[in-house]
């Protein structure tokens, strides 16, 4: 099942033959995590990039006063990692834990580079994925800069209606960078 | 001059032979802009991605009330575009204007795809560039979420000391999402 899911995801950008897909698939490992389990912990090595097959994860940063800031809420068909840790080998600064039971297909940095070096189509795929990732992040920066909580909530709800139903209002508020009370007013 | 500059920039990621570089270079066009000139205007087509050879540009979004939000201040060796317009062909939503006289090497979407399809090394280069772009944007999202203007200013000053000397305090404040008064307090 998870294999078909990854294949359909890749095919949105580039078509692989059965053989090419099986080759690419062999670089990934299937992983299962329980709700509340940590996939990445700040301070640890975080050498895997993960594709969500099932579930939701929360990627966050906790400052020295213990306050948590949510960077990403990732569900099926999203990719997540601690990008800095993954790409540089430095210890993770982010935490990633599971909001639901989660299944991933995960690839190490080394395997990703090997796969890209040996499969032209997969290098193209990852270049395009990062391009759309950049576009989404720029949108998020603009939404945060404009600092209009109402617009931010409306935009997020429209963009990810199915995600909204599966996570708590407290998490949504934290993701948007507003208080729980502000979000309640916006939800009325 | 600008050609050597681009070559040195590419060589930070991947080494090209003279021939390979000349081939890659042929996909770029050299452009010159005056201080205050617009390179991208909201509503227009923005089919070029630009590498800054000299100067500084400001990439910003203006909301329906006329308030401007700065997404990027890009100087030598940075890349800029309206990523959404560049990658989808939709009209630009951002404005990019010159803070100083600026020179760029610019590549169209079509040429970038042709170059990547015909040069393995350049596809690798652009994949890696987008990876580091993602890392920088995630840092910016976290800085905005944590909403600590002092930390944000300190981090930015440390990251780009030479940029700070070349642009006005008003622009820096806008980039950081704080008022000019707040920035003055932080600068003391």
At a glance:
The structure is a homodimer of 188-residue chains. Chain A has 188 residues and is α+β, with helices and mostly antiparallel strands. In chain A, 49% of the residues lie in helices and 22% in strands.
Task: Kindly describe this structure.
The structure is a homodimer of 188-residue chains. Chain A is α+β, with helices and mostly antiparallel strands and 188 residues long. The first copy, chain A, has a single domain, classed as Jelly Rolls (Sandwich), CATH 2.60.120. Chain A has nine helices and eight strands. In chain A, the strands form two sheets. In chain A, strands 1-8-3-6 form a four-stranded antiparallel β-sheet. In chain A, strands 2-7-4-5 form a four-stranded antiparallel β-sheet. In chain A, helix 4 crosses helix 5 and helix 8 crosses helix 9. Chain A is globular, with a radius of gyration of 17 Å. The mean pLDDT of chain A is 92. The interface between A and B is medium-sized, with 32 and 32 residues. Chains A, B: InterPro entries: cNMP-bd_dom, cNMP-bd_dom_sf, RmlC-like_jellyroll, WH-like_DNA-bd_sf.
Question: Which tags fit this structure?
Answer:
alpha+beta, WH-like_DNA-bd_sf (chains A, B), RmlC-like_jellyroll (chains A, B), 188 residues, Jelly Rolls, 4-stranded antiparallel β-sheet, homodimer, Crp/Fnr family transcriptional regulator (chains A, B), 8 strands
């Amino acid at each position: 099942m998870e294999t078909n899911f990854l294949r359909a995801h890749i095919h949105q950008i580039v078509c692989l033959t059965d053989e090419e897909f099986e080759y690419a698939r062999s670089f990934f490992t299937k992983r299962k995590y329980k709700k509340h389990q940590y996939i990445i912990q700040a301070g640890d090595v975080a050498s895997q990039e993960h594709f969500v097959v099932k579930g939701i994860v929360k990627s966050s940063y906790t400052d020295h006063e213990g306050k948590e800031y949510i960077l990403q809420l990732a569900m099926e068909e999203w990719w997540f990692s601690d990008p800095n840790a993954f790409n540089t080998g430095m210890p993770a600064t982010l935490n990633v834990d599971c909001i639901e039971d989660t299944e991933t297909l995960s690839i190490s940095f080394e395997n990703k580079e090997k796969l890209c070096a040996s499969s032209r189509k997969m290098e193209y795929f990852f270049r395009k994925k990062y391009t759309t990732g950049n576009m989404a992040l720029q949108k998020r920066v603009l939404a945060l800069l404009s600092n209009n909580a109402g617009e931010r909530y409306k935009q997020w709800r429209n963009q990810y209606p199915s995600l909204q139903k599966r996570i708590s209002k407290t998490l949504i508020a934290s993701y948007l960078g507003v208080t729980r009370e502000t979000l309640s007013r916006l939800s009325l």
